[in-house]
Amino acid sequence: MRIAALDDEPRQLELIRHAMAVIGHECHGFEDGRSLQRALYQQSFDMLILDWRLPNVEGSDVVRWIREKLGSRLPILFVARRRKEEDMVEALTIGADDFMAKPIRVAELQARVKALLRRTYPALFETELVCGPYRFFPLTRTLQIHGQATRLKHREYTLALFLFRNIGRLLSREHLLEAVWGADAEVTSRSLDTHMSRLRSKLDLRPANGLVLSAVYGLGYRLEFIDQNGIESPYPTADVSE
Question: Whose C-alpha in 24, 26, 89, 228 is 20 to 30 A from the C-alpha of 15?
Fold first, then answer.
């Protein structure tokens, strides 16, 4: 998963990055709220870890801005030196999903992150994902469309599953490249565009099947529900089975 961490102390950021890397997540660090806000306009993340006290903006103000601009789905974990009950209540009231006190205990941080991600993205932890005529079986890396097996190459399957697990979300190019090729891979945006074009064709992503894959200029891609008249539908939750 792709996580953004905000803390004005470089050592704390490095601690968070390392803790996230150990449990398999890519963590991008920011030392001031303005930088994070600029990044959130251009990139997508799966979760945020925010410090409360910052030199140029309060962490609480960042949370309010995120909830106003980006909605409620993005999970937020507050990390602060404050320990009073009223501080925790305030953090949760303004829109944070969880709160933990400094000094950071790595095992606790990892456990809280795992719990938040599991609660926010349940499809990531299921053995079957069903969305309209599409049925994914992640453990065997197989896919059925209208009951018929559909063969995809390894990266095509990884990309398709990632899109279906994030229906309705605008995913930045950086996010997609990291999720499919890895953070250190030297892959061009053109390669991503080529894979997206193939998926549109192989998965028959069109209104008749209830889904379309759209490119958002300068940002990334969004897989979204749509009816046969080309009208965007509310985003129903994909069915998942254990």
Answer: 89
